[in-house]
Amino acid sequence: MNAHIADRVQRSFSRSFRSYHDAAGQQAQIADRLIREMQVCGAPRCFATALEFGCGTGHLTNLMTSAFDIGHLTINDLSPEAVVTAMAANADFLCGDANVIEWPPQPNLITSASMIQWLYDPATFLQRAAEALTPGGWLAVSGFGPEQYRELVKVGSTASAPGLCRSEELAAAIEDQLEIITCGETLSVLHFETPRDVLKHLRRTGVNGRAQKVWTKTSLADFTARYTRNFKTESGVSLTYNPTWIVARKRY
Ligand SMILES: C[S@@+](CC[C@H](N)C(=O)[O-])C[C@H]1O[C@@H](n2cnc3c(N)ncnc32)[C@H](O)[C@@H]1O
């Protein structure tokens, strides 16, 4: 990730660290889905070592440590605030850009939920993860696809994440190294009373790190009018999430 962007993404998530956990209902659901997919696909109950990227406030960390016995867990995040997640999980904390930090060698499990979309090249990142895994090791990762926040794209927002990929693209990147056990994606549409509530939701979940926009009275009124004109429904204005996921295992 470009260091300047990483800096902005980090500041944005650090700012929203306290509000994130409760506001990020969609991210909580996708973390839950990822763990359930692993279980349905026959993941072992025990992993000697595991490495999680972009742990944030721990939606995935908590589910992972309840579902599996993990001998030694290392978790990472750009935001130093996430050290509390590591302390609660009794895990080692690696602070910094997942692309830049040194990874512990040959983990048996690599996971990440709702983080890879912040990378410019999620495919290369997954290839590095596939390479790092121990033979027989598992990979379980979720991100977001090109339909993520399609409403914002339509009204000209620059806030969207740089690495929105379809699940098949993620699978194609690693299928030479790993056996793809399952991959998929879905659309989930939330409704908010007003476009300003959409902006509040984005701020509370820390996803506006790339939006450099400073709102003026005029630009906010223009955003509100365009968003309402295009996306008003009987239930309020819409905001689309497009979670994607992949579970794979390294061949022996
Ligand atoms: C949407 S949150 C997801 C948090 C958690 N995994 C969850 O499922 O709720 C994304 C997290 O990824 C972190 N992040 C973004 N880019 C990162 C990078 N390049 N390296 C490490 N962490 C990163 C952010 O700081 C943030 O905590």
What would you say this structure looks like, in words?
This protein has 252 residues and is an alpha/beta fold. The protein has a single domain (3-148, 161-189, 242-250), classed as Vaccinia Virus protein VP39 (Rossmann fold), CATH 3.40.50. It is built from ten helices and ten strands. The protein has helices at 3-15, 17-23, 25-40, 59-67, 83-89, 122-132, 150-154, 167-174, 195-204, 217-231; strands spanning 46-53, 69-77, 92-95, 109-112, 138-144, 178-185, 188-192, 232-233, 236-241, 243-250. It has a seven-stranded mixed beta sheet with strand order 3-2-1-4-5-10-6, with helices on both faces. β8 and β9 (236-241) form a beta hairpin. The longest helix is centred in the N-terminal third of the chain and has 16 residues, at 25-40. It is globular, with a radius of gyration of 18 Å. The two termini are 31 Å apart. The model has no long low-confidence stretch (mean pLDDT 93). The structure holds S-adenosylmethionine (SAM).
Looking at this protein, list some descriptive labels:
about 250 residues; alpha/beta; Rossmann fold; 7-stranded mixed β-sheet; 3-stranded antiparallel β-sheet; 10 helices; 10 strands; about 40% helix; binds S-adenosylmethionine
Summarize the structure.
With 252 residues, the chain is α/β, with parallel strands linked by helices. The chain has helices at 3-15, 17-23, 25-40, 59-67, 83-89, 122-132, 150-154, 167-174, 195-204, 217-231; strands at 46-53, 69-77, 92-95, 109-112, 138-144, 178-185, 188-192, 232-233, 236-241, 243-250. It is built from ten helices and ten strands.
